[in-house]
């Protein structure tokens, strides 16, 4: 599925293929990234894959699957893009994949004869990417992985997406595939105020109202009174850099670093046997957000809402 209802052209040689793998129901930010990808004319969206968000939540993948169905239906795109189930739980060991229709689709798309580059963005754990690679190692040279996850460098440390499947991250990091990592200290640069969302997103038709409503519901869920994660009047759209980097790589904002091994404490152990990966140091949050706002406004106008 490729949405192209804009006056500006995108050269065909710049079009890319994209698989989006997301724990969509875990938090309020995933849906913003999914919608931005679906509205970007540079992107041929070939599949949405629902991810789990932790071994202790056995129905989390199914909740993500239903959330993706809701987003696609709200946009009026039902039937235009496959929505697939990924793994329902993390890898049990580094050598054994969790087979799923999502992992199989990654393999199928990577092995296609198609000149357009293939990217897979992961807004949650890397379970489905690791599983696809274990199922068919030849895909490693045929796609680029962008992952929102991992602690800040050089030490690493606790981080939600990594914690939901450390084994999968080690499989991907020790593989030869190209990886762009957006660690915690960088994706947290995607701060946005609730007033900004009410002004710029809420008026943009059914999908704008849905994006704001589901985020506000999540943000207002009772939690620890002093939790820094719930500041009250702002949020972090931490998954959006994965899409933003497809629109603008910002080649001056990353370093090539040897992919670390990752311990059970989520700390990084630098392994000189691993190949280098891109580790982003900063992102242009304003470019990403303004692109989202513009696309939502144009989409609502084109839909007559």
UniProtKB/TrEMBL annotation:
Gene3D superfamilies: Ribonucleoside hydrolase-like
Record carries keyword Protease: no
Keyword terms of this UniProt record: Glycosidase, Hydrolase
SUPFAM superfamilies reported in the protein's UniProt record: Nucleoside hydrolase (SSF53590)
Any one GO biological process: purine nucleoside catabolic process
Organism: Candidatus Limivivens intestinipullorum
UniProt superkingdom: Bacteria
Protein's UniProt name: Nucleoside hydrolase
All residue ranges annotated as the Inosine/uridine-preferring nucleoside hydrolase domain in the record: 18-252
Molecular function terms from GO: purine nucleosidase activity
Membrane-spanning residues: none
Any Gene Ontology CC annotation: cytosol
């Amino acid at each position: 599925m490729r949405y192209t209802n804009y006056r500006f052209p995108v050269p065909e040689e710049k079009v890319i293929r994209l698989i989006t793998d997301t724990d969509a129901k875990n938090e309020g930010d995933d849906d913003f990234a999914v919608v931005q990808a679906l509205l970007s004319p540079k992107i041929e969206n070939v599949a949405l894959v629902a991810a789990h968000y932790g071994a202790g939540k056995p129905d989390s993948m199914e909740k993500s699957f239903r959330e993706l169905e809701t987003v696609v239906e709200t946009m009026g795109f039902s039937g235009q893009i496959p929505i697939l189930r990924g793994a329902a739980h993390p890898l049990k060991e580094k050598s054994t994949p969790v087979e799923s229709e999502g992992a199989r689709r990654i393999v199928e798309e990577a092995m296609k004869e198609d000149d357009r580059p293939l990217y897979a963005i992961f807004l949650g754990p890397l379970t489905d990417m690791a599983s696809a690679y274990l199922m068919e190692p030849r895909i490693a040279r045929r796609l680029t992985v962008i992952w929102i996850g991992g602690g800040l460098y050089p030490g690493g440390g606790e981080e939600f997406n990594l914690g939901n499947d450390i084994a999968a991250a080690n499989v991907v990091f020790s593989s030869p595939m190209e990886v762009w990592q957006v660690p915690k200290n960088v994706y947290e640069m995607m701060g946005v105020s609730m007033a900004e969302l009410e002004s710029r997103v809420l008026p943009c038709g059914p999908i704008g109202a849905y994006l704001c409503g589901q985020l506000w519901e999540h943000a207002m869920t009772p939690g620890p009174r002093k939790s820094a994660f719930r500041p009250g009047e702002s949020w972090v759209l931490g998954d959006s850099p994965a899409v933003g980097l497809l629109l603008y790589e910002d080649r001056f904002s990353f370093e090539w670093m040897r992919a670390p091994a990752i311990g059970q404490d989520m700390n990084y152990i630098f392994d000189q046997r691993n190949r280098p990966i891109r580790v982003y140091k900063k992102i242009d949050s304003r470019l990403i957000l303004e692109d989202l706002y513009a696309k939502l406004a144009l989409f609502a106008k084109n839909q007559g809402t």
